[in-house]
Amino acid sequence: MRLDREAVLARAILRAPITPMSRKEWWRGCALYQVYIRSFNDSNGDGIGDLRGVIERLDYIRDLNVDGFWLSPFFTSPQKDFGYDVVDFRNVDESLGTMDDFMELLDEAHKRELKVLIDFIPAHTSNEHPWFIESRSSRDNHKADWYIWADAAPDGGPPSNWLSTFGGSAWTWEPRRSQYYYHPFLSCQPAMNLQNPETLEAVIREIEFWFDRGIDGTRLDAVQCLACDPDFRNNPPVSSHGSCILISGGPNNPFGKQSHLFDRDVPEALEIVEKLRDVADRYEPKRVLAGELSAAPIPSFCSRSGPYRSASARSPAPTPCASRSPRPYTSHRLTHRWLGPPAHGTPPRSGRTC
Ligand SMILES: [Ca+2]
Questions:
Q1: pLDDT tens across 115-138, in order?
Q2: Is this model's pTM higher than 0.85 or not?
Q3: Ligand 1 centroid – CA 190 distance (Å)
Q4: CATH of region 20-125+192-345, choose from 2.60.120.1440, 3.40.50.410, 3.20.20.80, 3.30.1540.20
Q5: Which residues contact 244 (CB under 8 A, 6 or more apart)?
Q6: 120 Cα to the center of ligand 1, angstroms
Q7: What is the pLDDT of residues 162-185, one digit of tens each?
């Protein structure tokens, strides 16, 4: 019997035990508010919300009676995907403020007993990131294997039939290497090869940079794309009863015509999240990891991730739920789907082009 996506999510939410929040495990049963910085509050009148604008409205957030908030990306970025295309994970984009602004925001939030999670993008960078610029320069440079590269198919086409969530092939030809690179989203967002331990360690160091500054956790973007099939096998078409993937573009969106067995939510992703959890566990108090899950087959995911969510104290599976929390915390899109648009708006993340 076909499992409806919303029915599966509702079942997961209703079954989740609600535990009174303790000071030590504040994330249990907590409520988090998403602050989409660019549209939240503009402090200097240039038309773009910014970190100082968030500082100005911290009392408002506190008065919502939430336990904390999740900040959308503020890293240095060409803004092709409004901050989800990062060129420097350790700096603040000048359109949104400065590092001093962020540290003041963090301090002021904690004074109000508000927890702060930041958005982090572990699975891809901007194509302007120095890592990718080096990786694409040749097949034998130091970072040659930091991104997902593949030779053309025998007919010269892409290595597989994988599609970008935002439309078109998920592969783009790179003449410098005479290879294709993989990008589950925009072509200017190349996917990192996190199954390369060196690459994963580099990403972990970027997360540690923010943990060391005192953030309470991260919302991990697109955990369904942390890894992909190493053999780049073609996705089969969806079965006759259709896809359960929720995606923009209507029922005729080609992305929804595939069963995403090999490009989304592959088993190798769980190993990567376990390593990220190890990093978060090294801190005291423990840091929270919350994974965004979108454009992935929810029923199969819920089935496979169940043991990770319930059996282990180190249970940060890439679920639509907060890591460590028995109470599901849905991603931006799923929250929007279930609860309606947040008060200060969130941007559409599909349909943009580089
Ligand atoms: Ca501004």
A1: 999 999 999 999 999 999 999 999
A2: no
A3: 29
A4: 3.20.20.80
A5: 2, 3, 4, 5, 8, 297, 298, 299
A6: 22
A7: 999 989 999 999 999 999 999 999
